[in-house]
Amino acid sequence: MIVDRTLGDSIRFETTFRDEDGNLFDPDTTGGYVYGPDGSILATASALVRQSLGVFTYDWQTDKVSTPKGSIEFEGWGTYGMMTYRTRSKIVRLT
User: Fold this and answer.
1) In 3-93, where does DSSP find H-type helix?
2) What is the pTM of this model?
């Protein structure tokens, strides 16, 4: 799903963690990356905010000067024991 936003907007990315059986779970640690149109990392989330079991968010404030226009993607990650889970989230088109 592509969501249109304007430079200067705050964007909430959501990541859901499920185990191999499809059950929601809370990782021991979380984080994430915001990727720009060219694949470069624009922001790093050192921890995500828990909203409910297995559902975490990261709020990112865009900047009218330094944030590039184009498609933005979020990758959330979480560790649970020895496993690292990665999820790709919403693609945002900044205009």
Assistant:
1) none
2) 0.85
